Amino acid sequence: MNRKHLLALASALLLCACSATDEGPSAEERLKLHREFSMKFFSSGDYAQAEHQADLGLAIDPRESELLLIKGWTHIKRGKADDVMVAEKIFRGVVREGDHRAQIGLGEALERKGVLYWESASEVAAGKRQTPAADPARRAEELRQEARKFWEESASLYQAAITSKPSNIQAINGLQRVSALRGDHSAALEWSMKLLELSRQELDFWRQDLARPNLSATQESEIRRLLAGGERLVLETHLQASGLLVTLGRKQEAIAQLDAALELDPNRAEIYSRRAQLRRDLGQHDGARTDIEQFLKRSELALDHPDVQRALDLLGECEVALGRANG
User: Fold this and answer.
1) What is the 3 state secondary structure string of 198-224?
2) Least confident of 8-17, 25-34, 211-220, 223-232
3) Between 65-78 and 27-43, two packed helices, what is the crossing angle to 10 degrees?
4) d(Cα 217, Cα 238) in Å, to the nearest integer?
């Protein structure tokens, strides 16, 4: 259901509720409608309307946890610095109740806050951002220390969510990311492997569910949405795992992760480029040449783009290496 239809339906249902009795709908009835439509708008990616519906509901009950969670996530999805700070405040208010969803939300807000502080540190150290501090280098290190504290708290929140629900994919994904940010690449890789295992199980479940007879159009649409999101997560996790394996010096295993990613999306040009570089590094020049050709065939970048120029340079290297080997 698109945004226009959702808005029309929301208005119609609220009008029906208003005309249901002489006194109009109860606060609980209006709250329920705002909650349902906030969730629907959020699922459809219309975060402005999702937050609007959440605010209407929160005007009725400022402590309604479902609406607070949705409002927090709308700010996470926007992702700007101010949004991250708002999300942190919202989730801190809900997390006291021990809700694992609030733990994940606060974990992600702090994860992103740490990234913002780390980026600020880099800009201060490079002289790209002014600081009133007398010693910019010292200030940059203070910002990095703050970032590390945020990531440490983020990791503890993700861990707490897993304690509540061991198969929580969102929390495991968060630990994959934050472990990498903290420089613990081995731990990040372990979480990547766990995430792939659980995500595949979830995809199998949704595929079986899709085969059920007598599915309504709404049910089928929702299952297909979940499948698409799960497949994207698996693809991105293969790419993350590949990068971690490269960092750990395990390039052949990194190639296997890229192979798996290409099975899911054989037209994604950047994956061929990444695999070509790894194959070149391992002396697999024939395979690297093939990958570069596939990258150039699928890439929509201009000829003078740096990535294309690097690919052409790499192609030349491979041609020379293969010529020597065959000569």
Assistant:
1) HHHHHHHHHHHHHCCCCCCHHHHHHHH
2) 8-17
3) 30
4) 32
Residue pointed to by tokens 């613990």:
184
Report, as an integer, the average pLDDT of 265-292. 97
> Cβ contacts of residue 84 below 8 Å, gap of 6+?
75, 76, 109, 112, 113, 116
Distance CA 288, CA 319 (A): 10
Cα distance between residue 145 and residue 1, in whole Å: 46
| pLDDT tens track for 284-322 | 999 999 999 999 999 999 999 999 999 999 999 999 999
- Answer whether 315's CB lies under 8 Å from 292's CB: yes
Residue where the block lists tokens 């950047």 = 270
Q: What pTM does this model have?
A: 0.86
Residue 236 · residue 181 · CB < 8 Å:
no
Residue whose token pair is 């927090």:
72
- Residue 19 CA neighbour count, 13 Å, CB half: 5
**189 vs 75: CA distance, rounded Å:** 28
For the chain, what is the mean pLDDT? 91
Higher model confidence: residue 13 or residue 49? Answer: 49
The span from the CA of 283 to the CA of 294, in Å, is 18
Per residue in 313-324, pLDDT (tens digit) is: 999 999 999 998
CA 136 to chain centre: 33
Contact 176, 237 (CB under 8 A): yes
Instruction: Give phi and psi for 266, each to the nearest 5.
Output: -70, -5
pLDDT class of 113 with cuts at 50, 70, 90: very high
Placement of tokens 């059920």 in the chain: 212
Asked if 175 contacts 155 with a C-beta cutoff of 8 angstroms, the reply is: yes
